[in-house]
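Protocol step 4 of 6: record predicted structures for both targets in the notebook before any analysis. Target 1:
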Amino acid sequence: MQNSPLKDKSYSFAIKIVLLCKELQRDKREFIISKQLLRSGTSIGALIREGEFAQSRADFANKMNIALKEANETDYWLTLLHDTEGLALSERIIQLRAACKQLIAMLVSTLKTVRSHVNS
């Protein structure tokens, strides 16, 4: 997974999440949802990185499955922010949701590949 698009995209996504959360806390004084978003949005990439040194295929699949759950939770927080923060952040949140959905699709594909190798 040295030059993995999944690893690169999840890291880039985490940076954007950190910057959005900083802005939410600084400008909007929003701390509850932003902390949840920060936790779930940055853990996606952290779990993918953990998977690099998985002890087995099952351990790797477990890390990717947890990353998938975190990505789904992140999409929830982004949707909630979009529906409650109004137009000010709308475009950025829409772009982040699209990036999150792309990560979800990549994780699902990764898990399908891992499962097919386990079953063969």
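Target 2:
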Amino acid sequence: MNPRIKKLVGSIGVVIYLIVYAFAAIILADKIPDHPALDLLYFVVAGVGWILPIIPLMVWMNRD
């Protein structure tokens, strides 16, 4: 596959994934109990957790 096409497809995939992930994180944030420590823990995990599923896509996009 042409590298430009791979980067286009991957970029569109990343944007779609991030939109879905953000909405899911917002919905799940409403479900956790209202406690400052749990809020902090949840938002730290949710704020960093999006990167792990993106790594294989980035590797695929940049592979020749």
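Step 5 preliminary note on target 2. Helices lie at 3-31, 36-49, 51-62. The radius of gyration is 15 Å.
Proceed to step 6 after PI sign-off.
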